[in-house]
Specification:
The protein has 392 residues and is an alpha/beta fold. It folds into three domains: 63 residues, PUA domain (Archaeosine Trna-guanine Transglycosylase, Chain: A, domain 4, Roll), CATH 2.30.130; 113 residues, RNA methyltransferase domain (HRMD) like (Transcription Regulator spoIIAA, 2-Layer Sandwich); 188 residues, 3-Layer(aba) Sandwich (Rossmann fold), CATH 3.40.50.150. Helices cover 28% and strands 27% of the residues. The chain has ten helices and 20 strands. The strands form four sheets. The protein has a seven-stranded mixed β-sheet, with helices on both faces. Strands 2-6-5-4-1-3 form a six-stranded mixed β-sheet. β7 and β8 form a beta hairpin. α5 packs parallel to α6. The chain is globular, with a radius of gyration of 22 Å. The N and C termini lie far apart (63 Å).
Length: 392
């Protein structure tokens, strides 16, 4: 097997069980690994450290195991069983009011480069590394063994997640079976999932608990759901007793799905209206119209080099939200940018609030749910940050 020898001192992160090895930490490579190959890692004294997938780029190796073990079918089966049992333990995989959850969350489930979301019998997979993609046959076979008759289809949605330079030419499509059921249920509410053409795997599962919290605040409120995508926060607000809900997105397809989801749960309900419009343009004419505002934009910064621009974007958005919300209003504001730490996000919102001259209090500090676990050894996995603000 190909071996990678680290520079003196660069093994310390692996002793702390961090799952990444950066290219700058490598002293030399023994062998000629191709991207996606399994490689062994050693310190400069040639003591075994870990085994993982080799890849081209800043992150050179994603660690699969800190034991010297075979990466075979049994390995994938064991890891997927562990991931599933975690979802059983937290009550998601056995909840009759919920048939959607994240089954595998990359490093949080010791499977870096792999994401699997479960929607009412269909598992939607995204491979984020060449190594995981090459193991897809074993992974899919293990998935059918773990889920049994709960699984009717597996859909691969990796066309946009794999490195384009790897020459894999991936195409989205079914790896097992096929599904015509695009309706799933979360906390007793129905929604249509578009894993064929929608963002991510089709729905933002990571906001489940934050949507439930918003439901508790919605009674008799005028609600604005910005960047609504498929309307998750909107129909939770309606079930919570909101007197009016406006959903806004720049995507006509997103608004179409939002309207479908509202109709699935509240057919003929006139409290809801949706708008295809750019966010800041809509906010410009929304002062004092809303008691409760959700600001859940797409990631403004996917890489460190654009972080400064993202900070300005979050600052501008939150300042506008704080300026226009009614006195005594509530704002749910989020960042899903991994490079934006929770401390930096809070500081950015603080600056935005200070620039408005209004009094603002933090009621809740929000994060991702338990089916998006964060390895304590991999703090970078904490990507979703949120604040619930009270604006006087």
């Amino acid at each position: 097997m190909n071996r990678i020898i680290l520079k003196p001192g660069k093994e310390k992160s692996l002793y702390r069980l961090h799952p990444w090895v950066f290219s700058g930490a490598i002293a030399r490579i023994e062998g000629d690994p191709e991207e996606g190959d399994v490689v062994e890692l050693y310190n400069y004294e040639k003591e075994f450290l870990a085994i993982g997938h080799y890849q081209i780029g800043s992150i050179a190796v994603r660690i699969l195991s800190f034991k010297n073990e075979d990466i075979n079918y049994q390995f994938w089966l064991t890891r997927l069983q562990q991931a599933y049992q975690t979802r059983v333990a937290i009550g998601l995989a056995t909840d009759p009011k919920n048939n959607v959850y994240r089954l595998v969350h990359g490093e949080g489930d010791d499977l870096p480069g792999l994401v699997i979301d479960y929607y009412a019998g269909t598992a939607v997979i995204q491979f984020h590394s060449v190594g995981m993609y090459r193991a897809k046959e074993d992974i899919c076979k293990a998935l059918t063994e773990v889920l049994g008759d709960q699984l009717s289809a597996i859909y691969d949605k990796s066309e946009g997640t794999l490195p384009y330079k790897a020459g894999l030419n991936p195409q989205n499509g079914y790896l097992l079976g096929e599904s015509s059921n695009f309706v799933a249920m979360e906390n007793g509410l129905k929604f249509k999932v578009d894993w064929l053409e929608g963002q991510k795997t089709g729905f933002f599962i990571d906001q489940r608990e934050n949507r439930s919290l918003l439901e508790r605040y919605a009674k008799n409120k005028s609600v604005l759901n910005m960047f609504c995508y498929t309307g998750g926060f909107s129909f939770y607000a309606m079930r919570g007793g909101a007197k009016l809900v406006h959903s806004v997105d720049s995507s006509a397809r997103a608004i179409e799905l939002t309207n479908q989801n509202v109709s699935l749960n509240f057919p003929g309900d006139t409290r809801h209206e949706a708008f295809v419009e750019e966010a800041f343009k809509f906010l410009e004419h929304s002062k004092d119209k809303y008691d409760l505002i959700i600001l859940d934009p797409p990631a403004f910064a996917k890489h460190q080099k654009v972080l400064d621009n993202a900070i300005q974007g979050y600052k501008k958005l939150n300042r506008k939200g704080i300026e226009i919300v009614k006195p005594g209003g509530i704002i749910f504001t989020f960042s899903c940018s991994q490079v934006m730490t929770k401390e930096l996000f809070r500081q950015t919102v603080f600056t935005a609030a200070a620039n408005t001259g209004r009094k603002v209090k933090i009621l809740h500090q929000l994060t991702q749910p338990a089916d998006h676990p964060i390895s304590i050894f991999h703090p970078e996995g904490e990507y979703l940050k949120g604040l619930v603000l009270h604006v006087e």
